[in-house]
């Protein structure tokens, strides 16, 4: 059973989120049809949703403001009420526990929500049992295992998978041992026995709960990093009134019938679109005294991660990062020296990118080297210099000549002997910043300067003299924050 920390920092983990290779479920998104009165409920075709007031624990559907009636052209009209997510009633909280286990399973198994995969079904049950603190379930925890009554597990399973026709057999993967203890087995007392686990630093967050007049419900439940509050995934779950146990003593008032992504972030992850994760984040000021040269050392290394394995182009980019950045970070420095590796993550609607600067100190004022890694989400591939040249509408030789000319004009002293291409970053406005290292002959020697040519303004800036590599407001807001060594 995998219930692991989805946050990675200060150490190298070739991540699989929550494994840590987070390959989330590819639940299919259901787009609600529009009508002149609202959206058609995807759970019941033809029913029209009319939103009403928020309702908390101490409010009821009857006490909420009555919605306006609408002519639906023959379809039945269904009203909706938004429940108070800060004070959910016990029935809603119990369903959130089920949704949370499904979220984690989608992430860990890299599979879609489905009732047709026995491994997925039983993994959901396992995670729910391991995390449940609900005394009504009657689970018994002794010696690292949890015993559960078969009738209760039956109720849990059908509440999680409302469309399940019959309980699936335990798959072989569920009965495999972890440190000598099977994940799931049948005890001598004819109860289900589950191994315990650790979910890591994640927790569920109920973001929305909508109750409909026909007794169905829809909830948005996110899996978030409990330290940073960042979203791992978020799904909208559709539920209907429990059809198997209609008694007033039913453990679960609803049964889940489907799930779909709640936002673009989850949608992208589910489709396998790479995203950025921190695999090394170490600052000298956390380990050394101020008078130690290593106090100024910085190690910020990012990798591309995906909810799918072997995404075209992603492995290639990570291989480059390993060779160009990570190997350098792991090399011991000579006494009295230190290095700084600063990363700048830039994600736009179309691109996922990293710019990383690398330098050893003392270095006589030489500008850091820069490495750029770019992924095109729409074309699902890694990018190279040809993408930059196409945007700039120039050949490599033409762009190099332009860079030299603009640099000489800006510096107004010395001559530029060389202009060497380093990489590029696509900006949110559609323009590219293309980085070149220019070698300037100033008469008494040569110096190297990093310049950035913008395809929109058709001008350059001298990096480090005219702003940072990437402006702070254009960088992703990762958690923990990448400080680039600025302790304040």
How is this structure best described in words?
The structure is a single chain. With 488 residues, this protein is of the alpha+beta class. 20% of the residues lie in helices and 33% in strands. It is built from 8 helices and 24 strands. It has a 6-stranded mixed sheet with strand order 3-4-11-12-13-14. A 6-stranded mixed sheet has the order 15-16-17-18-19-20, with helices on one face. Helix 1 packs across helix 2 and helix 2 crosses helix 3. The longest helix has 20 residues. The protein is elongated. The relative contact order is 0.11. The N terminus is likely disordered.
Structural class: alpha+beta
- Please state the average pLDDT score: 84
| Largest sheet: number of strands, sense, barrel closure | 6 strands, mixed
* Overall geometry: elongated
Radius of gyration: 28 Å
Please provide the count of β strands: 24
Q: Helix fraction? A: 10-25%
Number of helices: 8
Quote the distance from N terminus to C terminus.
Answer: 41 Å
Taken as a percent bin, the fraction of beta residues is 25-35%
As residue ranges, the low-confidence spans are 1-55, 57-73
Strand arrangement across the biggest beta sheet: 3-4-11-12-13-14
Key features?
six-stranded mixed sheet, 24 strands, 33% strand
The gist of it:
20% of the residues lie in helices and 33% in strands.
Produce the secondary structure layout.
Blueprint: E1 34-35, E2 38-39, E3 48-55, E4 77-83, H1 90-109, H2 118-131, E5 140-142, E6 145-148, H3 150-160, H4 172-175, E7 177-178, E8 181-182, E9 184-186, E10 192-195, E11 202-212, E12 217-225, E13 231-241, E14 254-261, H5 264-270, E15 275-283, E16 298-305, H6 314-330, E17 338-347, E18 351-361, E19 369-376, E20 381-382, H7 385-392, H8 396-411, E21 415-426, E22 432-441, E23 446-454, E24 459-462
Parallel strand pairs: 3-4, 16-17
Antiparallel strand pairs: 1-2, 4-11, 5-6, 6-10, 7-8, 9-10, 11-12, 12-13, 13-14, 15-16, 17-18, 18-19, 19-20, 21-22, 22-23, 23-24
